[in-house]
Write a structure and sequence with these properties.
There is one protein chain. It is built from 23 helices and six strands. It has about 550 residues and is mainly α. Helix 19 packs across helix 23. It is globular, with a radius of gyration of 34 Å.
């Protein structure tokens, strides 16, 4: 009896159903689920800008910064976003929505920043910012197959440290342009300076010296000048003597001469030794005091002057682009190793910045991987502009006209990149994977040798200035190239004399670039980019290399 009552109540809860009605039947459970489905709300440019501001203000917090868990970090961003007075009356956004939207903005803006920097390098005389922007949009569409619709987000982020262009800092000719004030459309701004430190803030807050202190400093300066003049007179009298000097006078003469030449008895040998010790051993600046009697500030000054001098004197020779002769030598070595047309290997080495400010950590942590670094690299600019030497080589009976690099699997499948085979099937694929991976290890060995010679690039960077860190890295590379040039003939394992003497016919040749056939417009440049990133050409070249490796080294494997 109780069961029948339950069934009656269940039927009554469904309500009355009209069988003659044309409307579809709807039960209570189904109707309640359909009513709870929310419509997807699109993001407006105003909401994007507010989200960007929330992320920047939260990541640049000088007190907390990114030293917190991801959940707490995004909770602060969502709270900042929903509390904005510009969003009064709108439905608050949830954490997942803000996180997904920021991931899309960050991804597309990073990609467009590389396209804009490429267009900025191609800017010709007479072109304005609108022309550069149009070229960047065309490059983005050609590379990714879709239009860039987050221009408002890019203009909001373009002057931040992570997304700002580094091209203006490299070109010295650009420095002559006057800085233009930032307007609504967005213009070039100075790179963000390092936040002021605690000691500098305290020193700046001190009061200026009074009149008595200034007079005392003037008197001390006059006394020091008088002392220097008296020493000069004593040295002149010792030099004017015609009689032989005794031991006391000779020691005094040498001391005065060293002070006059080097000042405070610091010789150039001491200064260079201090800088080289920091580069070679990666020690701190105050660690040289025991051996060289130099203070911390003096050692840092010596390091700065040493790096600037090395780059100025030897940078043009040891950081230059490869010449036609260099390319021919690299192609000959690549042909001997079974890779005709190969000019080397590409990889990325990361250098940790120990003293990175808290306000900047969120912009450098886990964001600049191999692909992002490659997108900002100008390695293919000469090819796009027609300034690179022309390369022609034959692989397995097919002719190609663009050199390539050996890379790992993270790089895209372009005609200029050849990766290994992750799961080789068959003896040919296995042999190719073995030879490619062993040959590609050259670049990793080069990084290992560089870090073993200069421990400063192996350990986390202890310097405070980004410019100084870059100068240290370039100086280490220049000194490394000097050592390689001096010792190259002693450990080179590949003899290219057979090509030079004409006893063997090389399949790779390099011709000087023809400057009269440079790409005249953007359309030709985009055509070259399409050829450079051709996936079908990549697959055909890779298959030909597999056959070439098998024909060259297959018999050795059988034995």
């Amino acid at each position: 009896m109780e069961n029948s009552t339950c069934f009656v109540n269940l039927l009554a809860s469904q309500g009355c159903v009209e069988l003659d009605s044309s409307e579809p039947l709807c039960f209570n459970s189904q109707c309640s689920d359909e009513s709870t489905v929310k419509e997807r709300k699109k993001w407006t440019p105003k909401e994007d800008i507010i989200l960007i501001g929330a992320w920047l203000n939260t990541s640049k917090d000088p007190i907390v910064g990114n030293e917190q868990k991801a959940g707490k970090f995004w909770q602060r961003i969502v709270q900042y976003y929903n509390c904005s007075p510009q969003l009064v009356g709108t439905i608050p956004r949830e954490l997942g929505q803000c996180k997904q939207r920021w991931a899309r903005i960050n991804d597309l803006v990073c990609k467009f920043s590389g396209c804009y920097e490429m267009a900025l390098r191609e800017q010709r005389s007479g072109q304005n910012d609108n022309d550069v922007m149009k070229a960047a949009l065309d490059i983005f569409y050609n590379d990714h197959g879709s239009k860039f619709n987050l221009e408002h987000a890019w203009r909001e982020l373009r002057h931040d440290v992570k997304w700002c262009s580094t091209y203006l800092e490299k070109e010295s000719g650009r420095e002559k342009r006057k800085a233009v004030a930032s307007d609504a459309q967005g213009s070039f701004a100075e790179p963000e300076e390092r936040p002021i430190g605690v000691k500098a803030a305290k020193a700046g807050s001190k009061k200026k010296k009074g009149g008595k202190e200034e007079e005392l400093e003037k008197i001390e300066g006059l006394l020091a000048l008088k002392k220097q003049i008296s020493r000069q007179n004593v040295l002149e009298s010792l030099l004017a003597k015609t009689e032989p000097l005794d031991d006391m006078e000779l020691a005094l003469k040498m001391k005065l001469m060293s002070e006059m030449m080097y000042g405070h008895c610091l010789s150039p040998l001491q200064k260079c030794t201090a800088a080289i010790r920091m580069l070679a051993y990666g020690c701190t600046a105050d660690a040289t005091d025991e051996y060289l009697r130099l203070g911390e500030s003096t050692t840092l000054s010596c390091l700065t002057n040493f790096t600037e001098s090395v780059i100025q004197l030897f940078g043009e020779e040891y950081l230059r682009r490869p010449t036609t002769e260099d390319l021919q030598r690299l192609l000959d070595i690549g042909e001997i190793r079974g890779f005709p047309g190969m000019v080397g290997s590409i990889d990325c080495m990361h250098w940790e910045w120990k003293n990175c400010p808290t306000a900047w950590k969120g912009q450098y942590t886990r964001t600049l991987n191999d692909i992002n670094v490659f997108d900002r690299s100008p390695i293919f600019d000469d090819i796009l502009q027609g300034r690179a030497p022309r390369v022609q080589y034959v692989v397995n009976g097919h002719q190609y006209d663009m050199a390539y690099y050996l890379t790992d699997g993270i790089y895209p499948k372009w005609s200029t990149f050849i990766q290994s085979i992750s799961l080789p099937q068959g003896p040919k694929a296995e042999l190719f994977a073995k030879v490619q991976e062993s040959t590609r290890k050259d670049v990793e060995r080069a990084f290992g040798v560089l870090q073993s010679r200069f421990a400063i690039v192996k350990n986390p960077a202890i310097l405070w200035d980004k410019k100084q860190i870059g100068m240290v890295m370039r100086t280490c590379i220049i000194l490394h190239n000097m050592v390689v040039e001096n010792e190259r003939n002693g450990y080179t394992q590949y003899d290219t004399s057979e090509f030079e003497e004409g006893t063997s016919t090389r399949s790779s040749n390099v011709d000087a670039p023809n400057t009269s056939e440079m790409p005249p417009n953007l359309a030709n440049m985009l055509l070259i980019r399409t050829h450079l990133r051709d996936r079908q050409l990549h697959e055909r070249l890779k298959n030909d290399l597999v056959e070439n490796i098998w024909n060259k080294f297959g018999n050795d494997e059988d034995e």
